[in-house]
Amino acid sequence: MANSLANLVECRGVAIRYGDLRALEDFDLTLPPGKACALIGPNGAGKSTVLKLLAGLETESAGSLLVNGKRPQDAGQAWKRDIGLLPENLALFDALTVAEHLELSGELYGLSRNETSMRTEELLTLLSLGEGRDRFAAACSYGMRKKTAFAMALLHAPKLLLLDEPFEGLDPASCESVLAVLLRAKSGGMGILVSSHMLMHVERLADEVVLLDRGRATWRGATVTEGGLQEHYLRLIAAAPLPPMAWL
Ligand code: ATP
């Protein structure tokens, strides 16, 4: 990996506990600029917990953590401008329209009105959100809400993009658009950490894949050869056998 001073993320031996529950144990992660890392793994494995930790929304119980050179808990507004987050719960406002969310985001991140407006138009077109631009978030479909939250995370071109399930709920063409813009952002030097169950998209985006299982990184790989990531995953985490279910 690149010079450690330049790494956007450096986690060493990080743990997160919720009471007795060990949500994350002895977790290491290094992410340089211009690279994408994907967190995969079963439901409840700890993927969203890692993203929240890096965004400063959770506190580590043990270990050390630097995101863009600072411990997120101690970082201020300037640090936040270099981070983009698509959170699990999307965090939209029901009474703002799609376009108003992007205006708000531009203002919060210190973009000029012109820059916000230009980037907004490009993102609305790319994500096929143009027709719904004046619809309140409360009246948007789930996919439209997800794409709005994604556009908000990207609008200020952060150094580090943290994406919780960016492909979930999106139609196939929108998934392609999201992948294309992420690959472009990566080649421009953005670091991307994504959690996803959509392994065929993960394969095209990620330079490193980390499998989390019950809070622990149990496998890491750059590429998977035989059979692809889906088959590899199912070799590592077998699906439960089908019970008799005489009632079905
Ligand atoms: P999914 O694929 O279903 O989104 P995930 O890998 O993102 O799952 P997390 O949301 O990180 O999983 O949750 C990891 C574990 O931490 C789970 O057991 C979850 O119930 C627990 N957990 C998460 N947030 C809290 C919280 N605020 N309080 C207590 N437990 C929590």
Structure report:
It is a single chain. The chain contains eight helices and nine strands. It is of the alpha/beta class. Strands 5-6-7-3-8-9 form a six-stranded mixed beta sheet, with helices on both faces. A hairpin with a 2-residue loop joins strand 8 and strand 9. The chain starts with 8 loop residues before the first strand and ends in a 12-residue tail after the last helix. 38% of the residues are buried. The structure holds adenosine-5'-triphosphate. Adenosine-5'-triphosphate binds next to strand 2 and helix 1.
Quick recap of the structure?
It contains eight helices and nine strands. It is 33% helix and 23% strand.
Task: Describe how the helices and strands are arranged.
Blueprint: E1 9-18, E2 21-31, E3 36-40, H1 47-54, E4 62-67, H2 77-80, E5 83-86, H3 98-108, H4 113-126, H5 142-154, E6 160-164, H6 172-187, E7 191-195, H7 199-205, E8 208-213, E9 216-221, H8 228-236
Parallel strand pairs: 3-7, 3-8, 5-6, 6-7
Antiparallel strand pairs: 1-2, 1-4, 8-9
Helix pairs in contact: 3-4, 3-5
The structure holds adenosine-5'-triphosphate.
